Amino acid sequence: MKSVFRSLEKELQTVQGYLSGKEAEEIAADYLKRKKYKILERNLKIGGTEIDILAKANQYLAIVEVKKRVSSQSGSPEEFVNHRKKNHLLRAAKILMAKRAFANLQPRFEIVAILTENSELKINHLIDVLEEE
């Protein structure tokens, strides 16, 4: 009986605009696949940082951060990729490029921002968003 209740509760939360991190990453991965990205790995932990999605897009190795929000009142999802997270992603990318055979690919940082507001799903895909500071 509890599992039925949890299932109904989850459906209600999703209808109301709530998405778990895993669901948001699934939506982001599907979105990228439709854009002809090849998903290489998900939830890759490297150098103490988690890369949500690692994908190949033409000559680029896309290092993708997924951010979700249920309201834009406090800012858009992409605004929550803070300076600290950017530095962690840059460090992880350097380790990744040194350890793996991606010499023929150029790293590129991207954000897939997912907003579920007023029962609408909005996706904002930002490409080449991080620069070394």
What features would you highlight for this structure?
Trna Endonuclease, Chain: A, domain 1; alpha+beta; 5 strands; 34% helix; single chain; 3 helices; 133 residues; five-stranded mixed beta sheet
Structure write-up:
The protein has one domain (2-127): Trna Endonuclease, Chain: A, domain 1, CATH 3.40.1350. It is 34% helix and 36% strand. Strands 1-2-3-4-5 form a five-stranded mixed β-sheet. It is α+β, with helices and mostly antiparallel strands. It has three helices and five strands.
Secondary-structure blueprint of this entry?
Blueprint: H1 2-15, H2 21-34, E1 38-46, E2 49-57, E3 60-69, H3 83-99, E4 106-117, E5 120-127
Parallel strand pairs: 3-4
Antiparallel strand pairs: 1-2, 2-3, 4-5
Task: Summarize this entry quickly.
The chain is α+β, with helices and mostly antiparallel strands. It is built from 3 helices and 5 strands, in the order ααβββαββ. The protein has a single domain, classed as Trna Endonuclease, Chain: A, domain 1, CATH 3.40.1350.10.
Question: Major sheet: order of its strands?
Answer: 1-2-3-4-5
Low-confidence parts = none
- By secondary-structure content and strand pairing, the structural class works out as alpha+beta
Task: Supply the CATH architecture.
Answer: 3-Layer(aba) Sandwich
Distance between the termini: 53 Å
Q: Give the total of domains.
A: 1
- Helices, by number, come to 3
Outline, from the CA principal axes?
globular
Give the helix level as a range of percent: 25-40%
E-strand count:
5
CATH class: Alpha Beta
CATH fold node name: Trna Endonuclease, Chain: A, domain 1
Proportion of residues in extended strands: 35-45%
State the major sheet: 5 strands, mixed
